Amino acid sequence: MRRADLTEPDTIGRPSKRLHVITWGCQMNVYDSGRMTDVLAPLGYAPSPVPDGADMVILNTCHIRDRATEKVFSELGRLRLLKERREAEGGRMVLAVAGCVAQAEGAEILARAPFVDIVLGPQTYHRLPEMVARAARAGGAVIETDFPPEQKFDLLPDVAAPQGITAFLTVQEGCDKFCSFCVVPYTRGAEASRPAVSVLAEARRLVAQGAREITLLGQNVNAWHGEAPDGGTWGLGRLIRELAEIPDLLRLRYTTSHPRDMDAELVAAHAEVPALMPFLHLPVQSGSDRMLAAMNRKHSAADYLGLIERLRAARPDLALSSDFIVGHPGETAADFDATLALVREIGFAQAFSFKYSPRPGTPAAGAPGQVAEAEKDARLQALQALLREQQAAFNGSCVGLSLPVLFTGAGRHPGQIAGRSPFLQPVHLAGPAELIGAIAPVKIGAALPNSLTGTLQTPTMQPQERASA
Ligand code: SAH
Ligand code: SF4
Ligand code: F3S
Strand runs (DSSP E) across 198-296, as ranges? Predict the structure, then answer.
């Protein structure tokens, strides 16, 4: 969430209204929360770090697993009290539910939480100012969960609050893959790519505001196939090459990718574009071909291993991350062993793993062979123990190396600065604040479970020229 000076007047001198945004779910939701804040700024809404006394609260929700949905309803219970208190004091708190729960369960939200004023799906954020106006006039709730014909990115404002040294940029949305277990194709709609010109312009703006690393986002980011400046079509590999030409943009990443959309041009970009970082999150979900077929993943374990081989040939120091689901309907002990075998064969620098959670309306939810909860627990523990071991081994292998660290902010203690390694590991060390925004070599001295520490190798090294406004 952005910092805010709560007393700052807006551009035409009115006192700011306070906007509090709570964000769950993936990085695309983080990006979207920023864009909703941007679209409300001209109405006088300034970000507030707390919901107490806010004029508007937006819950940007995630529907990917069951617990994610339940969190929304318990948060709504808490916010109801704040809203009632504000009304008792003669004020008003507009309560909006956005994101994937809004899209999937809009009607249920209004039934279970009738005090909610606005329910809006992820494709309608450009219409938020109009919805706020309607909510102010109307007695009842405003609900917008249709997929509108216009593209929200064409209509969201160009002016955006700065994101900092590391920034997100959504280039692609939606998904046509329909994995058996997943709600995303239903909540985010069909795959759509932003044109290259609009992505490049936004990247330049982010860099002018101080960003030095940009992570391109999409539910299926490597399926990006945007309109090129000459009217043709580019793939993500080409887009990355063009972005890498932007002066002062030091690092590029992209997430999340599907193994099927990893084309030769993108693999080659890993070999040929130095700004493209040697870290890739590439979800595989399972190591069993039987499960991969049941999941409708459209690739086999051997396809995935072959792809990793090509990627490692292109970029030998590539560190890998993945997502795994244990206990998908029909998963046997032998299927699960195949997942462990794949993990052992590849060796991940880090990974996310989840118990299968049935999602209403998805094919797997009603499939036979649902796995008992206790079995899912046991498999998750076994997988996570192996993944933790691999993460510790990977972090340990960095000790003694000199890694280029991009410094992103102050550290936890005075005199400390914090940054990121090329492999996305957080790095904390003693160093001058002037290095923030620059890359400097760090000799890694120790590995903690989720971060690294070390010493600056050339503390006097000049930071990259900052593009100040
Ligand atoms: N687009 C990405 C992932 C999107 S969701 C991809 O294609 O891989 C992020 C992760 O959540 C998924 O990779 C999957 O591991 C997990 N996930 C999705 N639906 C799930 C469900 N019903 N139960 C458990 N985990 C799930
Ligand atoms: Fe979900 Fe599969 Fe699409 Fe990823 S590729 S968003 S897991 S349906
Ligand atoms: Fe969650 Fe929607 Fe992202 S379901 S993971 S917020 S696309």
Answer: 213-217, 251-255, 279-281
Pocket test for ligand 2, best of 64, 179, 354 (most atoms within 8 A of CB): 179
Alpha-carbon distance of 256 to 262, in angstroms, equals 11
In 10 A of CB 89, how many CB atoms?
9
Does a structural domain hold residue 172?
A: yes
Residue nearest to atom 10 of ligand 1 (CA): 323
**Consecutive 10-residue averages of pLDDT for the chain (469 residues):** 39 73 96 96 94 95 89 94 93 95 93 95 94 85 86 83 93 96 96 96 96 97 97 98 98 98 98 98 98 98 98 98 98 98 98 96 96 98 98 97 97 93 97 95 95 84 41
The verdict on 82 and 199 lying in the same domain is: no
Identify whether residues 162 and 126 lie together within a single domain.
Answer: no
End residue of a domain, out of 144, 166, 188: 144
Q: Whose CA is nearest to atom 24 of ligand 1?
A: 356
For residue 179, the CA-to-ligand 2 centroid distance in Å is 5
210 and 123 part of one domain: no
Token output for 237: 């590999």
Closest residue CA from atom 4 of ligand 1:
219
Q: Which atom of ligand 3 is nearest to the CA of 60?
A: 6
How many domains, the chain?
Answer: 3
Is residue 310 located within the same domain as residue 406? no
Q: Does residue 465 sit within a domain? A: no
Same structural domain, 418 and 383: no
Identify the residues whose C-beta falls under 6 Å from ligand 2. Answer: 175, 177-179, 182, 184-185, 219-220, 258
From 62, 103, 177, 284, give the residue whose CB has the most ligand 2 atoms within 8 Å, as the site to mutate: 177
* Cα separation, 374 vs 187, whole angstroms: 30
CA of 102 to the centre of ligand 2 (A): 19
Alpha-carbon gap, residue 460 to 469, rounded angstroms: 25
Q: Domain check: are 293 and 417 in the same one?
A: no
Q: What is the pLDDT of residue 14?
A: 52
User: What is the position in ligand 3's atom list of the atom closest to the CA of 219?
Assistant: 7
pLDDT at res. 354: 97
Q: Containing domain of residue 219, as a range?
A: 152-397
**CA geometry: angle 420, 205, 7, nearest 5 deg:** 85
